[in-house]
Specification:
Layout lengths: L2 H11 L5 H19 L3 H16 L11 H15 L4 H18 L6 H7 L5 H20 L3 H20 L11 H24 L15
Helix pairs in contact: 1-2, 1-9, 2-3, 2-9, 3-9, 4-8, 5-8, 5-9, 6-7, 7-8
Length: about 220
């Protein structure tokens, strides 16, 4: 499902939605729309990440705030529990032979690899963590634990997100094309599913949206 079909549905249902949910969906859809228009892979990835962020980010007390990774992992677990058609699980299984497996095998989207490059970890340490992450994903797949697979996958995507957002990559550079392509492929399919599941579950407590509209 693409932006226009989701947007048409949101227009039909938004008056019956809680304002926080409607605002989240409105923002997420706007960035999904921009992502679908992007002609460059870097831009498409950034816009897709913002769409994902708009869907899950919650305004909570700073003292209770989880790390960003823990926050979106909890969000993904919630989505999987609400996914009555198992659309996310089907996506994981259909993509694992391709994009997900390639992503798990790519050290350049594994934070410990970069920690080794900066002297924070030994070569042995980062390789042990790399192998452990791949083993955890394989075990999660064997147990059909979709949230756990997504958790490992999003650890990789988050590393790429940090590289781009914090200026650790060159726009349209040659060295990160494979991982950008694979991450865009996954997010481009997952973000519309996330929005669809949120539309399907308007009575779920999604939390207060960040930066509410004022004035």
């Amino acid at each position: 499902m693409h932006y226009q079909a989701l947007k048409d549905r949101h227009r039909q249902e938004r008056d019956q939605q809680h304002p926080n949910l409607s605002l989240r969906l409105h923002r997420a859809l706007s960035w999904l729309n921009r992502a679908e228009q992007a002609e460059d892979t870097d831009g498409r990835f950034i816009f897709l990440w913002i769409a994902f962020n708009a869907a899950y980010a919650t305004d909570i007390d700073e003292q209770l705030r989880l790390s960003e990774q823990e926050t979106f992992k909890a969000f993904l677990e919630k989505l999987c529990s609400l996914d009555s058609t198992n659309s996310i699980e089907k996506l994981v299984w259909s993509e694992f032979p391709g994009s997900i497996r390639v992503l798990l095998d790519n050290p350049y989207v594994f934070q410990s690899f970069w920690d080794h490059q900066s002297g924070k970890l030994s070569e042995e340490q980062w390789k042990e963590r790399f192998a452990s992450g791949k083993k955890a994903a394989a075990l999660a797949l064997a147990n059909r634990n979709t949230p756990a697979v997504l958790g490992v996958m999003f650890n990789r995507i988050y590393t790429l997100r940090n590289q781009l957002i914090h200026g650790g990559a060159t726009w349209n550079g040659r060295v990160n094309r494979d991982q950008l392509r694979d991450c865009c492929n996954l997010l481009g399919k997952l973000v519309p599913l996330i929005i669809q599941i949120m539309l399907d579950n308007p009575d779920t407590l999604w939390g207060d949206a960040n930066y509410p509209v004022v004035g």
